[in-house]
Amino acid sequence: MRxxxxxxxxxxxxxxxxxxxxxxxxxxxxxxxxxxRLAREAWIISFFPYSxxxxxxxxxxxxxxxxxxxxxxxxxIVGEYLLEHISEKxxxxxxxxxxxxxxxxxxKRMRERGYNQAERFAFALLPTLxxxxxxxxxxxxxxxxxxxxxxxxxxxxxxxxxxxxxxxxTKVFGRHVILIDDVVESAGTMNDARRALLSAGxxxxxxxxxxx
Length: 212
Hints:
The chain has 212 residues and is an alpha/beta fold. The chain has one domain (2-211): Rossmann fold. 49% of the residues lie in helices and 18% in strands. It is built from nine helices and eight strands. The strands form two sheets. Strands 1-2-8-7-3-4 form a six-stranded mixed sheet, sandwiched between helices. The protein is globular, with a radius of gyration of 16 Å.
């Protein structure tokens, strides 16, 4: 139901309107809609409801138009939450310095847009998390597949299965990983990325999505 609502909203609202809204978003605006919760899987947490107009403008503005103005605010709010979570993981789960790994775009998508929105969200966290994580955007690779936004939820898990691989297993072996994406719906993308990381020897993978 949530995926259907997202599709309808995306179709009805012109992207350029969201770009303008995204450029004007403040940290105060985002604080009002900040609502951390588990998303689909117990190992994934998300922070903002995509159905909220401000959040929708944020995601679409960053993803489709390359808007960067609201990213520092996102990084501050989400980063402070993750800082506390990492501290707890160190104390109770034996975490060392985790890798911060954004979900990669396919080569085709990178050619079309020139950037990866998940990497931009991850990079926005670094001013807050710099001394607590190791930024590793090169760890994951992604095969060309049909866009997850263009197929039904039922097809998404099958479509993305096996799409991810690790570029160098020695970089993740024995490491704890924070995996980050812009939006989580079916969790198919995050699940397959996690599969690749664990198969390469990662000790643990914790998923972070900006919106749900």
